[in-house]
Amino acid sequence: MPNPHTAEHPQQYRPANDRRIVEVTRRDLPLHCPMPGTALWASHPRVFLPIADAPDGRVVCPYCGTEFQLQS
Fold first, then answer.
1. What is the pLDDT averaged over residues 19-28?
2. Is the residue at 1 inside a domain?
3. Which range of residues forms the domain containing residue 19?
4. What is the Cα–Cα distance from 24 to 21, expressed in whole angstroms?
């Protein structure tokens, strides 16, 4: 769940969609968007993304359009 106290420590969080391509590893699975550390104001409903099943190791979030790339 996104952190509801992001306004108390804004320097700890990156702006929404500051990167359109996010590289992830198998340690990040199961992959979901928004990722931990996303500011509450920039979040959307959590959606799990089946990146492990993607033939090219890429998946795009249907809400925000962020592309995730699985590193091998």
1. 89
2. no
3. 6-70
4. 10
